Amino acid sequence: MVPDFEAKLSEYAHLLVEVGLNVQPGQTPSIESNVEYAALTRLCVSACYDCGARNVVPYYGDDFTTRESFLRADGAVFEEYPSYMKARVDWFLEQKSPRLSFTGSNPELLKGVDPARIQARRKASGPPTKPYFDALTANKFQWCVGAHPTPAWAEKVFPGRKGEDAMDALWDAIFSVCRITGDGKAVERWKAHAASVRRRVELLNGYQFASLRYANSLGTDLTVRLPDNHLWAGATDHTPAGVEFLPNIPTEEIFTAPRWDGVEGRVYAALPLAMDGNLVKDFCLDFQEGRIVDVHAGEGEEYLRRTIDTDEGAHYLGEVALVPYDSPIRNTGILFYNTLFDENASCHLAFGKAYPSCVKGGEDMSPEEQKAAGLNRSITHVDFMVGTKDLSIVGTTRDGREIPVFVDGNFAF
Ligand code: ZN
Ligand code: ZN
Prior knowledge:
alpha+beta, nine-stranded antiparallel sheet, five-stranded antiparallel sheet, 20 strands, 35% helix
């Protein structure tokens, strides 16, 4: 049993609702949940009303029912998207309902299901829900992703531990990286954390570095040019109405996009890369004029090469993210097999797609204009960790001044 579990769960619910969603009086939040998450969901429902919600609308999925349906329903079912489901998301969009969802369901839920059914479902649900998810990506309403352990996920993170025991260990880890102690003060801690992230975002945006140079004792020596008018982002976002919210809890990173054609040198991975059940270990990438020209890996090299061959854009970087080595997530020493956590463990880079919002006006540019502005395009986006205890990053301003950004693995300012 996790000590003070009830108090911590309630603290977590308040954190997700008050800081994550920042529910405003009169709003009608939606909660995408699962029957397994009922206890946390109910606490979130109450927390929404505490914030003055007009109404709260949870939707409970069920992994068992989902799997049974994929295995046993009529095949034609997967080619249609029910109109009431579309009406539902359209209604939420109209209301600009804040959306809370959870990551954590069984990663092997659809194991053994006919891939054609999964693909058909994806194809059928894509277009009808596109306006809703486009609005979400563009922060037209508040949204937040939290986490809830399931036995399958917990047993993957803690091999050798089973069922409730593994669940307790994962809850413990989630509470700890979410700065939840049971004292009821997580909301205050996160407001302070978000403010310190924002301070660094503003400093970095003020510098408008022409390039960053990475070096450490693994052998990393990499220069990354940044686009003109790039924007660093971190922690909080705002809706058009000016409501501040925190889309990911936990979050530690501050990120922007590199110039796709402006990366030179070699970078060594600091942690293994887990993709679709494959593990790539001890690897490095060589860059010339932005393109990955060579790959070496102690393990999983073939898989890494294949991933980089996904398309031309996957040969170039699309994200530069700064995370202190001394971050709560890395300090646990746990590989979560879940991006919400793992990408906040270490400074990382990603090959593949860049976020258009990383360049001023990027969201309103055509694909060609985005590319000219330096933003990489690809169908994929793969984060890999490069932050070590001795990582140094030096920024060079457009007038040639050198400013330390990272010293010994942590922010210099
Ligand atoms: Zn990132
Ligand atoms: Zn990323």
